[in-house]
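User: quick one, fold this
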Amino acid sequence: MSFDNHLRQSLIWRGFYFLTLFTSNVVLSRFLLASGSGMLFYFSTIFSLVVVVFGLSLESAFTYYASSNAIEDRKLLPIGIFWSLAITLVLYFLLPYYFSRFEKCDSYHSLLYTQYGCLYTLGILLTNYSLALFYSKGDYYLPNMAMGLLNVLFIAALFYLHFTIKNNELVMRSYFIYNLSQGLLLLLLYKFFVLHKKPLKLPHKANLQQVFKFALTCFLANLVFFLVYRIDFWFVKSNCNASDLGNYIQASKLGQMFLIIPQIIASAIFPQTATGNNADGIVAAIKALSRILLQFFMVIIILTGILGKAIFLLLFGASFNTMYWPMLLLLPGIFFLCNLTLIAAYFGGKGKVKHNLTGASIALVVVLLGNILMLKHYGIGIAAIVSTIGYGVNYLYAILQFRKHESYSWMEFIKWNKEDWNWLIKMLWNR
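Assistant:
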């Protein structure tokens, strides 16, 4: 299958999943309001950090070795299952201490949030590992169709809980149960539809060494980048009120929606680069998409400046009345992240993860210093500006390294070209 075909399948089916995911996010935000959804997504961010730290980015190693057929998928899957269960067991004993010591929760809420954390962590780890194997096989339809339909069921459950039972605590709990259900569903689908009757096999010691060596390098890069992209949440929570936290996190999550397409594309770039196939097509696609993204974000920034306030209030409700400026200020940074996502996938497939790690480390220093230096004048607008600067520094480093691997002029990343849109339309609609 050509790279364009991989890209098209990824865009169509992952696009369907993310559309349903966005809808569930809107429903949650309207039901829980800014303060409630802010705390939900804040705790989800904490659990996401747990996933990044303890998950060790094994999914990157799974994609790399399964795509190149260096290690059988039926040897990789048991690693993911065992690791997910082991980490969840460890967290069951660690999280109560965190919530009582650092979040100042009473014993009831410490136990409740620990349960949430275990459900979320186990579900996301199983999801990540299963998706890595699906995508390494070029299968974008089955997992994303399944997750999309699960999102539809989750949205229906949210309406039932909110309007019939009228219990927001159950709404929050259902969110974490949903994450676990997703992971288990994907695991079962891979076992019965991809592996079929092939039994799982225990990996050899050499396989484990290969997987963890590659994963640890990716882990460091992903951990640092996670902090670059999320550390502002802790600064905002410490220096702003709950409503501003909810507005800022919602602006950030809305910005993540713009990352969906680049992430979908990256899920095709990484395994295809790892196989060594379609090299010229991949590089050409990265350049063309960068030019398209520049034009797209210019339009989005203008429209947000004109219509943003009204749209945000209409979409999320009256409690989200301060997310306009953070959203507008974050958009240039989101543009940098979109391009960075494509180049980072290229480096990952080439085994050059050190470039991702170095760039993210530089950006983290910039974001930390920027937030600390601006504490006296801190607000969600300042947080957005500092984050955008950090993302820009990371992107600049990435394209400098990319230029060393692939010869190109700077104009190839920014010069408008009608052929880019012709290629995009052909890629999307050609059967």
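User: anything notable?
Assistant: The two ends are 12 Å apart (CA to CA).
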